[in-house]
Amino acid sequence: MLQTPAPNLKNTLTETNHLQCKYLKIINLQYLSIFNKLIQQSSCSKTSSSLADLKRIQNLDPLRGFLALMVVFNHIAMLSRSADLPNLSQFAICNRGPEAVFVFFSLSGYLIIGLLFEEKKKLGTINIKSFYIRRILRLYPVYYLVLFMGLFHYQIVLPALNIPFKINYNTAEALLLNVGLLPNVFKALYNPGSILSILWSIGIEEQFYLAVAPILYIIPLKKHFKYLLLFSIVYFLLYHTNMFSFLRQYYLLYFYMSTGGLLAILVKLGYRVHFSSWSLRIIMYIIFIVHFFSNLFQFSTIFWQNLFQLILFNLVIVNLANESKFNITNPFINHLGKISYGIYMYHMFAIHIIVFVFMKLHNEILPKWATILTINLFSLAGTLMVSHISYKYYELKFLRLKGIFRPKSQYNTQ
Predict the structure, then answer these.
(1) Crossing angle of helices 128-152/171-179, nearest 10°?
(2) Three-class secondary structure of residue 243 per DSSP
(3) What is the SS3 assignment for 59?
(4) Of 58, 209, 43, 120, which is closest to residue 407 (Cα–Cα)?
């Protein structure tokens, strides 16, 4: 766990959040001003703007599903251990949640920066407002639902059940930091509980894209790669210095997204950045799997660990996306990828419920092995059920509207 940062950093949050909240108000007001437009075009959004009209990049949905499940198994073991229940935390596969999130970061950079680059390449500009609205439609509905449900859980439900949980923040602070897209700071300062702590990664992504989209809009297209490369190298080095230790304290892992974007730009420019040798690709995939299922590739310092993962994760993404030997088309596996955002956001609720039940009953009902199996199966089943329902009946209503704000250059990839 990361240590709480120095108090002087906390004193700077008020001005930072004031500016971010003011900026977010502008975005939200623009969003509200076009709400009537969304309603009027909703019938169109179900056809020409449907997600089905977008060609999804091969093998990336299965990768998303795999990563989401790694996070789930990690947190099942973590919460079971904290509740003194039988668990599988001794196995590496149940401790790879952070690494899965890092792959998500690289994948996000590969897709989103690639789309921004393609938009500017084909249209000569980037529509910043439309980009932000698409991000709002994709993330905000579930993000705010989980935020408010999480606050309700810790401040209302747990006290009602006489379950002790120390809350060292007030509601205003929680809303200010999380609405201001600083959930990573909220996590570092207050350790608010696992349901709310998972929001940190959403904040990291949105902080990065709030900055990178205008920058890519301003600088010439031919300099996108150069500036992104310079940022990735310099930022990676600064991140691992003692002088900039606050970057680690607040989980500011922007280099995973920027390097994913670098590979995307090379692909858009027509460069072959994936391995042509099937043997090399097999070796790379094996290393990736071994890294998640064992402790073989663990380094003594965070610098070398991040460097190894940065290279491996980005290579896996670009090779899967351009794989010529296989294309995973199984409907269930691909659907896991489509609902992976919901899996990530909702899984803590399911785990909390199951773990709470077994805290009361496990010694009287099941042996150790059966307890572990039941907790994992019920937590996973509950997570998948809620995520599917959310995706089909809640998220899709907003996702379909994204097509209204999507440039024509983006109707061939997602």
Answers:
(1) 150
(2) coil
(3) coil
(4) 120
